[in-house]
Design goal:
Layout (H helix, E strand, L loop, with lengths): L8 H7 L10 E3 L7 E8 L2 E7 L3 E3 L2 E3 L5 E6 L2 E7 L11 E4 L9 H19 L10 E3 L6 E3 L5 E2 L4 E10 L2 E7 L10 E4 L6 H13 L2 E13 L4 E12 L9 E7 L14 H14 L8
Parallel strand pairs: 2-7, 12-16
Antiparallel strand pairs: 1-6, 2-3, 2-5, 3-4, 3-8, 6-7, 9-10, 10-11, 12-13, 12-14, 13-17, 15-16
The protein binds zinc ion.
Length: 294
């Protein structure tokens, strides 16, 4: 989460103040003439890394293949990505490790860049042919788009916005355990925004659908790119306005109202806007029921 571009600053200021450390700036880019660089090589949902000690891992450096996708620069070092075919091997000395397992094993900056690499190489692979006329597309050298060589139609990387919300009632927070992910975490409610909805509409609908609760006083909290999907999480706080918890069984295994000093097991800190929302709730409640946001 220290990978702070301007888009992350809201969350950084409000929710991750306690993580404030040196801000390392990643500068996105479209093209580079570099022939060597840091290589974010993907094999399915895994990243090829050099094992470094017991739990550590690092991103390999090396010559840049022709088909590599330039991502940008981290502290002056050019970063490239590509995706291996099924039978291909990664750079010498590397092993594929599931991206989820790399959280904490590589720096937050590299974890964030790996998320970009995952999403952008998927986009690059999935838009080799025009969705409108079927002809081949090619990468633009000016912006992040693949353009049809016949009709000119452009395919940009696509983001799916999702809302995530901490609902509060009389000093307690609504937390739920989803059915799709195994235990043990309770977390805030979240869901994708549907076509035609505002973010606030999506908050109201998701909380009603998943927990049967009506909400009011919806306040923006911060946002976070979701590194393991082509998504953007937009965080909110809201106040209970009516209804008792009724879980949607296809989504939620159990849910409840939790006091700040009696929380269930919640997601680990850093990189998780869910945890930032919960930490913010605890902090506000610790400073009294009238504690202000942010
Ligand atoms: Zn076309």
């Amino acid at each position: 989460m220290n990978r702070l571009s301007q888009a992350h600053c809201g969350l950084a200021r409000r929710a991750l103040r306690h993580h404030a450390s040196a801000l390392v700036t990643f500068i996105p880019g479209i093209t580079s003439s570099a022939t060597h660089g840091r290589l974010f090589v993907l094999s399915g949902q895994s990243l090829c890394v050099v094992q470094d000690g017991r739990n550590g891992a690092r991103i390999p450096n090396g010559p840049v293949p022709d088909q590599a996708l330039y991502l940008g620069e981290l502290e002056g070092a050019p970063c490239f990505a590509w995706r291996l075919d099924d039978a291909e091997c990664g750079p010498p000395g590397t092993h594929p490790v599931a991206l989820r397992q790399l959280f904490g094993a590589v720096s937050d900056e590299d974890f964030g860049i790996a998320g970009r690499a995952l999403a952008l190489t998927a986009w690059d692979r999935d838009h080799r042919f025009c969705g409108r006329c079927g002809a081949q597309t090619e990468r633009s050298r000016l912006e992040r788009v693949r353009t049809c060589t016949r009709c000119g139609h452009g395919a940009y990387p696509r983001l799916s916005p999702a809302i995530i919300v901490l609902v509060e009632r009389d000093g307690r927070a609504l937390l739920a355990r989803g059915v799709r992910f195994p235990p043990p975490f309770f977390s805030t409610l979240a869901g994708f925004v549907e076509v035609g909805e505002s973010l606030e509409d999506a908050v109201v609908r998701e909380v009603k659908e998943e927990a049967g609760i009506a909400v009011a006083d919806i306040q923006y909290f911060g946002s976070q790119p979701w590194p393991l999907g082509e998504s953007l999480m937009v965080g909110f706080t809201a106040r209970w306005a009516g209804g008792e918890i009724v879980c949607e069984p296809s989504e939620i295994a159990e849910a409840g109202w939790f006091a700040p000093d009696a929380l269930p097991r919640v997601p680990p800190p850093k990189l998780s806007i869910a945890r930032a929302l919960i930490d913010d709730f605890v902090r506000r409640r610790a400073s009294g029921p009238s504690g202000e946001l942010g």
